[in-house]
């Protein structure tokens, strides 16, 4: 390692399931032969980080845990086997920290499905620290003209919704409902959908989120908190009143997962992306059959999806609505997120 890399750094550490996070100094890790060490400058805060801290999911995260998987920074050290990344390159730490690259899933670019995948901020420490490690083969390559602060949320939220929209099969000119549209993934989904030539029906709760969705380009906004008949309103917001061709479920509650098949257009596709704790999907078999509805899941994206999602951002086709706070204030962001009060994305600056 070079002399400028310190031995200690600031990090936010989850010591036990349920949290909170503790802002403290921890050792700077050393990259293995196939890894890089990234000086994380900014990291987005994804709801997944909160699920991880709260122990919401069936797979337990490592403990103690440094969360974070939208980390944008500069490569400061690399292992002996890394020859396609240079010190000084800009790179991003995403949810998929590494995978085996040899199993049948990896071989066909389905690396998120790799049985030995490493997950940033879940099974390995992530980007809520000043220096984080990732497998060189999997880091997102960030062109130098891309702003590290603004691009951070693209590294999970952007990639995930870009992939989800592609999985939905919706084509330019068609409509997509974005459920949870005022949150981090949702705000990005509106933008990617617009850039792909889709009409957007945004669904979330409250006026502030409605204004944000409209400002980002949503054609209509349906407020799940005040709507008297959400299914009818969503259908009516589409050109023929037949419902959207696709639904992206990004919400952190179960209810919309039960509702989506009621308003999706016949032959339409419901894509599950949000991961509310303990949630189940329920749909009437009769309707699913007679209206030929597809229900599927979509999980982050592969390396190609990553670079394509970043390229949309680089070309100015999507912008990220974000607010920046110091890494030391992460718990406050989690508190707001828990209350459903985050509009867009929070980014943490690791220097404060
Ligand atoms: P977020 O907290 O920023 O946004 C969630 C939004 O859902 C909020 O705006 C909230 O108001 C809204 N919401 C809650 N109940 C709703 C309802 N009944 N109808 C409509 N909207 C509702 O969270 P985020 O960071 O955007 O993450 C969203 C979810 O996606 C999380 O569960 C996260 O773990 C998951 N996620 C999945 C993947 C994947 O690969 N599948 C990747 C990243 C995140
Ligand atoms: Zn995420
Ligand atoms: Zn694999």
TrEMBL record:
Belongs to the zinc-containing alcohol dehydrogenase family. InterPro entries: ADH-like_C, ADH-like_N, ADH_Zn_CS, ER, GroES-like_sf, NAD(P)-bd_dom_sf. This is alcohol dehydrogenase. The keyword Cell inner membrane does not apply. The keyword Oxidoreductase applies. Its EC number is 1.1.1.1. SMART domains: PKS_ER. Coiled coil: none annotated. Residues 18-348 form the Enoyl reductase (ER) domain. Pfam families: ADH_N, ADH_zinc_N. Its cofactor is Zn(2+). Keywords: Metal-binding, NAD, Oxidoreductase, Zinc. It comes from Remersonia thermophila. It comes from the Eukaryota.
């Amino acid at each position: 390692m070079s002399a400028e890399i310190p031995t200690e750094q600031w990090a936010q550490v989850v010591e036990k399931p349920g949290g909170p996070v503790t802002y403290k100094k921890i050792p700077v890790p050393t990259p293995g032969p196939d890894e890089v060490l990234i000086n994380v400058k900014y990291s987005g805060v994804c709801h997944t980080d909160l699920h991880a801290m709260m122990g919401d999911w069936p797979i337990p995260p490592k403990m103690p845990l440094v969360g974070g998987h939208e980390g944008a920074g500069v490569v400061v050290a690399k292992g002996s086997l890394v020859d396609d990344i240079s010190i000084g390159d800009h790179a991003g730490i995403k949810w998929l920290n590494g995978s085996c690259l040899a199993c049948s899933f990896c071989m066909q670019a389905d690396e998120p499905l790799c049985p030995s995948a490493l997950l940033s901020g879940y099974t390995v420490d992530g980007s809520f620290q000043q220096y984080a490690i990732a497998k060189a083969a999997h880091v997102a390559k960030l062109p130098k003209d891309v702003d590290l602060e603004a691009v951070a949320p693209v590294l999970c939220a952007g990639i995930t919704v870009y992939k989800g929209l592609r999985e939905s099969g919706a084509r330019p000119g068609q409509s997509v409902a974005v459920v949870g549209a005022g949150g981090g993934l949702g705000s990005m989904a509106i933008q990617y959908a617009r850039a792909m030539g889709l009409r957007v029906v945004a669904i979330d709760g409250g006026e502030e989120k409605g204004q944000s969705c409209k400002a980002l380009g949503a054609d209509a906004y349906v407020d799940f908190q005040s709507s008297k008949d959400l299914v009818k309103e969503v259908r009516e917001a589409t050109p023929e009143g037949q419902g959207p061709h696709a639904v992206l479920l990004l919400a952190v509650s179960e209810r919309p997962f039960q509702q989506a098949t009621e308003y999706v257009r016949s032959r339409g596709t419901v894509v599950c992306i949000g991961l509310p704790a303990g949630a189940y999907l329920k749909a009437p078999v009769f309707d699913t059959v007679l209206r030929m509805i597809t229900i599927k899941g979509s999980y982050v994206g592969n390396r190609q999806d990553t670079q394509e999602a970043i390229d949309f951002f680089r070309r100015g086709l999507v912008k990220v609505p974000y607010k920046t706070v110091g890494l030391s204030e992460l718990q406050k962001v989690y508190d707001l997120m828990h209350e459903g009060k985050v509009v867009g994305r929070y980014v943490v600056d690791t220097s404060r």
